[in-house]
């Protein structure tokens, strides 16, 4: 089930994945001004000469915590983005601080979709989807676990799939799990050409890895 509005989670979300720098900033202005948190530093002594916010807003309310995204353009102030960053902050209502939950940094031409939070039988999952100008995707997935957004190994099931396929068939690249349905369709190839067969995969989650729980082969 997609989390479009609030859903309840019993623990507060103030812990975060490991970051290089400070993870706390003032809540006021996080949607208008870049924050020097995590791996983000800019200015005369910073990693980048300048930073500006290109998109920001509320994402979801989890328990008593509001989650906000901020997308940054990193580089010279009068030039195209050298790199882009997507940051997620958490803020408890009526408190002055925002806590960095997750960050990712990508090439300057990257475009981000809005973060997707989904409640599943395996827990609360989050997908961060990034697209390059050529159409390729670089997605990352996280599981809310023990007060942290834990990265998920989203490729483990592909290794299992390759072992189960009939001889001569190989899986196509660039497929992304649908965490709403915990399924994925994979085009199959033979000798480098489309075989006209699709692997319909049902996914599970164990030890912070997507796992293959059921495989069905179907003709396109």
Give a short synopsis of this structure:
With 220 residues, the protein is mainly beta.
Secondary structure elements and pairings:
Layout: E1 24-26, E2 51-62, E3 65-74, E4 83-92, E5 97-107, E6 111-112, E7 116-120, E8 123-128, E9 130-131, E10 140-145, E11 148-151, H1 156-164, E12 169-171, E13 183-190, E14 193-206, E15 209-219
Antiparallel strand pairs: 1-5, 2-3, 3-4, 4-5, 6-9, 7-8, 8-10, 10-11, 12-13, 13-14, 14-15
Can you walk through the features of this model?
With 220 residues, the protein is mostly beta strands. It folds into two domains: 24-151, no CATH class; 156-219, Roll (Nuclear Transport Factor 2, Chain: A), CATH 3.10.450. It contains one helix and 15 strands. A five-stranded antiparallel β-sheet has the order 1-5-4-3-2, with no helix packed on it.
List keywords for this structure.
globular, Nuclear Transport Factor 2, Chain: A, 2 domains, mainly beta, 220 residues, four-stranded antiparallel β-sheet, single chain, five-stranded antiparallel β-sheet
């Amino acid at each position: 089930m997609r989390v479009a509005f609030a859903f309840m989670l019993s623990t507060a979300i103030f812990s975060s994945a490991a970051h290089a720098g400070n993870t706390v900033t003032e809540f006021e202005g996080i949607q208008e001004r870049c924050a020097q948190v995590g791996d983000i530093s800019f200015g005369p002594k910073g990693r980048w000469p300048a930073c500006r916010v290109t998109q920001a807003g509320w994402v979801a309310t989890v328990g008593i915590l509001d989650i906000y995204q901020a997308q940054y353009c990193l580089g010279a102030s009068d030039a195209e983005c050298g790199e882009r960053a997507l940051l997620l902050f958490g803020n408890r209502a009526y408190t002055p601080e925002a806590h960095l939950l997750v960050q990712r940094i990508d090439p300057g031409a990257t475009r981000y979709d809005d973060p997707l939070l989904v409640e599943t039988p395996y827990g609360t999952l989050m997908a961060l989807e990034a697209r390059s100008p050529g159409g390729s995707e670089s997605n990352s997935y996280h599981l809310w676990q023990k007060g942290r957004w834990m990265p998920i190994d989203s490729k483990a099931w592909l290794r299992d799939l390759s072992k189960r396929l009939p001889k001569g068939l190989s899986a196509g690249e660039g497929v992304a799990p649908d965490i709403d349905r915990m399924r994925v369709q994979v085009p199959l190839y033979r000798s480098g050409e489309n075989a006209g067969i699709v692997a319909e995969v049902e996914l599970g989650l164990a030890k912070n890895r997507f796992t293959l729980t059921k495989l069905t082969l179907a003709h396109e």
